[in-house]
């Protein structure tokens, strides 16, 4: 009887740990995607107002690597992906918050395989259901 009670306790605790760990991963993902959107916005606006070009984005990428050497994902190409992400969704009040709920990888897949915002929205729905 004691063994059965302990097994049930372990099963319950494992479920709690798994559930909360998955919730934490989702929240971390939402923050990462929100950060990429914000970085994309910042860079997009600076490119327009300050006339930043490819050399400036490349320099920023290199300086980020120097300041945060253990953090990956801020290569020039990824900064441009963040700009594209922001510029694709900035004016869409419905889709913009929803794309933060899916992983960055899935967002990149959608960005690179669909041409219209309607196609992107439809594909996003397929991934989350």
SSE layout and pairings?
Blueprint: H1 2-49, H2 54-67, H3 76-89, H4 95-98, H5 104-113, H6 117-128
Helix pairs in contact: 1-3, 5-6
Mean pLDDT over the residues: 89
The ordered H/E elements are HHHHHH
As residue ranges, the low-confidence spans are none
Q: Based on Cα principal axes, name the global outline.
A: elongated
Q: Care to count the β-strands? A: 0
SSE class: mainly alpha
Number of helices: 6
Return Rg in Å: 20 Å
Percent helix range: over 70%
Q: What percent strand?
A: under 5%
Termini gap? 42 Å
Biggest beta-sheet profile: none
Provide the descriptors you would attach to this structure in a database record.
elongated
Short description:
Helix content is about 80%, strand content about 0%.
Q: What does this molecule look like?
A:
The chain has 129 residues and is mainly alpha-helical. It contains 6 helices and no strands. Helix 1 (2-49) crosses helix 3 (76-89) and helix 5 (104-113) runs antiparallel to helix 6 (117-128). The longest helix is centred in the N-terminal third of the chain and has 48 residues, at 2-49. The N and C termini lie far apart (42 Å).
């Amino acid at each position: 009887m004691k063994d059965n009670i302990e097994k049930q306790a372990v099963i319950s605790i494992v479920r709690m740990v798994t559930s909360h760990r998955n919730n934490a991963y989702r929240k971390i993902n939402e923050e990462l995607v929100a950060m990429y959107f914000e970085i994309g916005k910042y860079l997009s606006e600076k490119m327009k107002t300050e006339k930043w070009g490819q050399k400036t984005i490349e320099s920023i990428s290199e300086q980020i690597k120097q300041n945060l050497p253990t953090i990956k994902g801020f290569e020039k190409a990824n900064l441009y992906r963040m700009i594209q992400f922001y510029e694709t969704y900035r004016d869409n009040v419905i889709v913009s918050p929803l794309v933060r709920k899916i992983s960055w990888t899935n967002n990149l897949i959608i960005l690179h395989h669909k041409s219209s915002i309607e196609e992107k929205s439809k594909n996003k729905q397929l991934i989350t259901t």
